[in-house]
Amino acid sequence: MTTPPPSGLRERKKQATREALREAALRLAVQHGPDQVRVEDIAEAAGVSPRTYNNYFASREQAIVSAVTADREARIAAAVTARPAGARLADVVTEAVIEQYANTGEHERQVLLLITTRTALREAFLDTTTGIEPPLTAAIAGRLGDAGAHTARVLAASVAAAVRIALEGWLQPAGNAAAEGFGAGGLVVPSGSLPDQLRAALAPLAPAFDAAERRTRP
């Protein structure tokens, strides 16, 4: 009987496969255009089967977007956890979100430019905000204590919704497309300051964060 590999090794292999898939997806999208890339092409370029691909991503758009959004949710949660215990929770969360969304390098900016020119990629990019909730729930609960577990989930879900709203405002279709709704298509030009958009969207949540801290404070 074959002995299964240690869980740590298994997880590293899964992570390596995920990285290979998203790198292949982005490379092919840049070379040929997103619309010309098939799931089968991405899988072949990464050296896996289409069936294996489907274990990691539900679409080509999801894989392409993952090249710029990978692990962002975990980094936000880690930043919240790392802040000093006495810091105001509303400020801690806001700073962590802005840090991870606004501090992008040249590579990320190039990917974002690609994303903003395709409706399906924009929608996949916006959908990634839902991934904020699970790790952020744990991070907020860690700061509020056991009594704030339910509240932490509500707050984290609210943060995810606020981030999506901010991104929708930042990625507004240009020209007449704006009147037809965000998903109408057309050229999208990021409007205004993303940090300002994020701060404005998260600001209404501050009283809820403050109240949660007061309720759970010894």
Question: How many H/I helical runs?
Answer: 12
Intertermini distance: 55 Å
> Helix fraction?
55-70%
Count of beta strands: 2
What is the subunit organization of this protein? single chain
Radius of gyration: 19 Å
Sequence of strands across the biggest β-sheet: 1-2
Helix-strand sequence: HHHHHHHHHHEEHH
What is the residue-mean pLDDT, rounded to a whole number?
Answer: 85
Biggest pleated sheet: 2 strands, antiparallel
Shape: globular
Poorly predicted runs: 1-5, 176-186
Class by alpha and beta content: mainly alpha
* Beta-strand percent range: under 5%
Summary?
By secondary structure, the protein is mainly alpha-helical. Helix content is 68%, strand content 3%.
Task: Provide structural commentary.
This protein is mostly helical and about 220 residues long. It is about 70% helix and about 5% strand. It is built from twelve helices and two strands. A two-stranded antiparallel ribbon has the order 1-2. Helix 1 packs across helix 2, helix 5 packs parallel to helix 9 and helix 6 packs antiparallel against helix 11. The radius of gyration is 19 Å and the shape is globular. The protein starts with 6 loop residues before the first helix and ends with a helix.
